[in-house]
Amino acid sequence: MYRLFVDEVGHEDFGGCEIPEQRYLGLTGIVMNLAYEQGGFTARLNQLKRETFGREDMVLHRREILNRCPAPFDRLRDEQTRSTFDAACLKIYEESQYRALTVVIDKAEHKRVYTVWRFHPYHYCMTCLLERYALWMTRRGYRGDVMFESRGKKQNKRLAKSYQRIFRRGTENLRADVFQRCLTTGELKIQPKSANVAGLQLADLMASPLCRDLICNSLNESMKAGFGKAVVDIVRKTKYDRNPRNGEIKGWGTKWLPK
Which domains, and CATH codes, for the chain? Predict the structure, then answer.
């Protein structure tokens, strides 16, 4: 039994999409064996929390880690503590058992290309992510489900309906029976951040650097953040899904939209 844990970077609406800071939306999915996520991986993440913050009943969130606030994240203001924490995170990213999938959409280009009808950016990214997850499981004979972090009542409802449509009708690229064979349910799992789900926390911590990497590649730029680049190097080396024939990541572990 596997689970796809999903987190996003950016906003789904087209307002301000010409502004570079608001132009892109990305979704990153972390695929984990569910027993491992709930057992060994959760235990290792809890160990990191205890050693750094002195408690387990907290949720690791990238924004709060970067800002080093509120408490107990203010402990990261100590440079030695921060350095030790960063090294421990990278070790977890490298040694843990998971596969990563990242989809990024250029909303400005999507708006320019599709002038009559446009696929909702968030649901477009989710569709591409689910296609890759389904293909990954199909190649291995696995089954699993999908979990997103709660974003709000209306957004959750729309997202759940979009997921149900994919499960029942399929997509342009995959028939419904492909999804129905590998997905255990037509209902999307949605959990709040307060649920302290280890897999969702990993998706949150990794989504920004992985999405930024695809954006930088599109712009022919280099990533500036050293820690983010270290995360990308780990994922590109061993964690992204790949074409089983030639090892290509593009189109398998990553997807740039619009097509």
Answer: 2-257 (3.30.420.10)
